[in-house]
Each structure stands twice: as structure tokens, then as C-alpha cells.
Amino acid sequence: MAARHRTRRATAGAVVAFALAAVVAGCGGDSPAETTRRAESAVESLASRASEAVESATAEAERRLDDIKDGIDVKDDVRLGTVTVGSDGRARVEVTVANTGDATRSFAVQVDFTDTDGGLLDTVVVTVDDVPAGESSTVTARGTHDLSGEVRAEVARALRY
């Protein structure tokens, strides 16, 4: 529930301008109170949909990782680069895994994109296949939602299998 609250707070700021512009443009003869009520309703609706989308992505990420049999927690063997947000609004970050095992292994890494307060904005799972023992490999994690502002990334879970 705390993540849902943080997500709503984080997404509300991003949608306020859009919602207000849409409501004001369509309310030519409405009173100021009615315009305010419509704007608040629009913001709540958009924030709720954004929160539900992030919750769905998080559940899917957890399901994918839980489906991996005999996975070993290797969160400490994963490094993230600097987050960038592309012109498409999607956050990206390089994910480097180090195979410290003695055989070729694959990895699944859950990357959480957060705001500066740690509120969850998006989450993705990337896989890195067939990394030879003692070597590293890098892939790019790309978010699934449009984000703006300062975005950070953290490794939520990482499994070697």
C-alpha cells in the first residue's frame, strides 16, 4: 500500500498540467468550482490508472522471477549505469552482470525506476543469457511507461540460473 501511495503522489504531479489543460479547454461555461471539481476528478483518475499500471508491471516482474527454478540471489553481482530518459519518455539504464560462478550461467534482473523520493515509477525484468564463468555482460533495461523528471534506478532482485 505504501508503494501505491508513493506512486500516486509521484504520478499526480506529472498529470496535473495535462488534466487541468484538458478540463479548462472543455469547460467554457462552467463555474470555477465545477472546473476545479472536474480537474480534481481527472487527476485522480489518471493517477489511479498510472498506479494500477505500475502495480501490474511489478506483479508481472515478481511472477517472472518466481518462475525461475534453482535461481541464486546475485544482487551484489549487478551494476547499473546512469539512467537516461529518451525522447520517447522511456527510462533506460545499462545493466552489467558479473558471472562469479564456475560455469556459463544466465541472469534475470529486476530493475526498479524510482523518483528522487524512492517512489516506484516503473519496473522491468531483463535477462542476460549465457554469460561465461568469470566474465561480465551488459544489456539495456528499458522502462515500459512514459516518465519525466529525475529518474533513478535500483536493482530490486537478481537471479543467476
UniProtKB/TrEMBL annotation:
<feature type="signal peptide">
    <location>
        <begin position="1"/>
        <end position="21"/>
    </location>
</feature>
<protein>
    <submittedName>
        <fullName>FxLYD domain-containing protein</fullName>
    </submittedName>
</protein>
<dbReference type="InterPro" id="IPR013783">
    <property type="entry name" value="Ig-like_fold"/>
</dbReference>
<keyword id="KW-0732">Signal</keyword>
<dbReference type="InterPro" id="IPR047676">
    <property type="entry name" value="FxLYD_dom"/>
</dbReference>
